[in-house]
Amino acid sequence: MLIIISGCGGGSSNGGTNIDQEHTLTVSINHNSDSTPQIEVYNNEEKVDSGEGDLVQFKLNNGNYTIKIYNNSITKIRDVVIDGSNESIDVSFSDSTNPADDWDPGQEWTLAWSDEFNDGDFDTNIWTRQRWMTPPNNELESYTGEPSTAYEENGSMVLKATYDGGAYDQQGNYTSARVISNPGGQDGNSGADGKTFKYGKIAARIKLPGGKGIWPAFWMLGDNISETGGNTSWPQCGEIDILETGAKGDPNYGQGTVHATVHRDPGTESNPEGYNKYVPAGSYTLANGELFKEDFHVFSIEWDQEKIIWKLDGIEFGRKKINSDIENEFHKDFYVLFNIAVGGHFTATPDETTDFPQYMYIDWIRHYTK
C-alpha cells in the first residue's frame, strides 16, 4: 500500500531551521494487511522524514507536503498543508484486488454484452494483443503482443508496462500492452470475432497506472480504420477517447485528471493541424489530490445519434454534439482499445521517480442499450 501527500515548500523536523514554526502531522492508518504500513514525507520531491506503523507523527514547518503511505500491494495519495496548526490524516484501505462494486448504470439501461474477466482465460476470440513496435505520437514503448503484457488475473484483465533499462527518453526501452476488440484482430484477417459498438452506454471499471510519463487510455476507433484492415485512414475513421490520463500540463503529472476527446476528419473546416480535428469535450480532476491509481473508477460514455456524454462514476464531465454532417464518423461501428503508453507528446518523459512495472486493471467492460 502507498499513500502520497504532495506539495511544495516548508520543511521537517530534520530539515527545518525555524523550530517555532514546527507543527505536528498525525497519520493514522486503518488497514487489514499483515504488512506494516510505511510512510515517507516529501518536500519539493525531497524526502525529509519517514516512519512506519498504524499511527505516526511528524514535526513539520509550514508548507505543502507529499506523504507516501504504502505496503507491498496498495498505494494511496493525499495532499496536506501545514499552515500554523497541527494537522491529521486518516487513511483507510483494503488489500482486496477488486473492492466491492456498487456502480449502477441506471434503470433505463439494459445490459446487452459484457466481459467480466472472471474465468482467468484471456479471450483471444474477443481481445487481441496488438503488436506495434514503434507507435506514433513520439511514444517510447513497444507493444510486443506477448501474453506477458496482457492477461487475466484475479477477476481483471491486466495490462503491464515495463522499463527494460537504458535512457529514459529512448524509444524501445519500454514494453507495454495495447489490447483491441477489433473483429479479425491485428489486421482484420485472424478470424477473431472481436466486438464492435454503435450507440448505447459503454462502460469499464478500471484501476489505472500512474506516474511521470505514464499515459493510459480507454478509447474507441472506427472499425473501418486501415491499421486493422479497413479502407479508411485516421482520423477520417473517427476516434472517441473515453478516458486519457497523464497529461503533462495537469497536476501530479495528470494522474488525477481524466480527459474526454474526439478526433475526426477536419473536412473543409479551417484547421491549423491540417490532418486531424481534435475536439476536447471535457475533463475532471479528482478532489484532494487523489489519483486514479489508488482505486477503481467507472469510466463511461452514453452515445446516441445526437450526442456523446462522458461520465466518471456516473457523474457527467463532458458532452459533444455529433448531429452535423461533418461528424458522420460517429454513426457507425467502433471497436474498443485499452493501452498504457509511455512518454509521448501528450505526457512527460519518465525518470527515476517513475515506478515500474505499471499495471492497468480492468475489472469489467459492459455495453448497455435502451
UniProtKB/TrEMBL annotation:
Residues 91-370 form the GH16 domain. Signal peptide: none annotated. This is Beta-glucanase (GH16 family). PANTHER family: GLYCOSIDE HYDROLASE FAMILY 16 PROTEIN, GLYCOSYL HYDROLASE-RELATED. GO terms for molecular function: hydrolase activity, hydrolyzing O-glycosyl compounds. GO terms for biological process: carbohydrate metabolic process. Belongs to the glycosyl hydrolase 16 family.
